Amino acid sequence: LKAGTLERLVVHLLDPERRESDFIHVFLSTYKAFTASSTLIELLFKRDDSLTDPDNSVSLHSPLVSLVQLWLEEYSEDFREPPQYPTLGLLCAYMRRRIRFRRVLHIAETLLKRLQEQGSRLSA
Asked: Which fold has domain 6-123?
């Protein structure tokens, strides 16, 4: 995809037929040049909601689950925004409302706790 809009890039990221590891890594390495993390989170979950069971009663596989896990594990610096960590808080809020994100939510909450502890040590 060349010169795609952010919305088109999100569609491509979450298309289960076009899961390209290289594209995902390049996107996560560069998106901050053209959008905020909070905007990306909102668009990702909006798109994911349009593709999955609206009442969240069925735990359908979502490409977003693995994308968020990768983002948290390999690009955790994107969420280092002391002292409140608003982007990570927003991500956790979206995941709390979706059953299929339970395991990844634990990763995010653990990261938040670690970042808060690091921040406390640095400010002490």
From this structure: Son of sevenless (SoS) protein; Chain S, domain 1 (1.20.870)
Q: Closest Cα to residue 46, out of 79, 90, 105, 104? A: 90
Residue showing tokens 């390999």:
74
pLDDT tens digits, one per residue of 62-113: 899 999 999 999 999 999 999 999 999 999 999 999 999 999 999 999 999 9
Domain segments of the chain: what residues? Answer: 6-123
Per-position DSSP letters for the chain, written without gaps between them: --S--HHHHHHHHT-GGG--HHHHHHHHHHGGGTS-HHHHHHHHHHHHHHHS-TTS-S----HHHHHHHHHHHH-GGGG--TTT-HHHHHHHHHHHT-GGGHHHHHHHHHHHHHHHHHHHHHH-
Note if the pTM is more than 0.85.
yes
